[in-house]
Amino acid sequence: MLNQRYGLFATEDGVTAGDAPAQASFKRRIKENIYNRIPFPLSTLGYVLFRYVIQLGFLDGREGLIYHVLQGYWYRFLVGSKVLEYERTIGRLATPEEKRLALAELTGLKL
């Protein structure tokens, strides 16, 4: 998500649009063009509702509700809040190299 917004790394897709199944290409376009652009508190709630209502998660009963809330809201909320934290840190930096260095320091990863 950060790479999509800030262009921090070269994007070399292992699968081209012609090689990917139509469903995978469609899901990727939805995620990149719509889901990743919505503020994360709204996108997490929307994702839970999508899983629970549209994908018929309610048919799984109480267990389905628990699963879809944990997977759709809790996990996505944690990911979204971490991305927001990183954006606040690297948003003030000017160059992609400075942003990569700041991310490496924050995450402890060799980028």
How would you explain this protein's 3D organization?
With 111 residues, this protein is an all-alpha fold. Helices cover 67% and strands 0% of the residues. It is built from 5 helices and no strands. Helix 3 runs antiparallel to helix 4.
Essential attributes:
111 residues; mainly alpha; globular
Spell out the blueprint of helices and strands.
Blueprint: H1 2-6, H2 22-33, H3 40-54, H4 61-90, H5 96-107
Helix pairs in contact: 3-4
Low-pLDDT stretches are none
How many strand segments?
A: 0
Please state the average pLDDT score.
85
Structural class: mainly alpha
Describe the structure concisely for a colleague:
With 111 residues, the protein is mainly α. Helix content is 67%, strand content 0%.
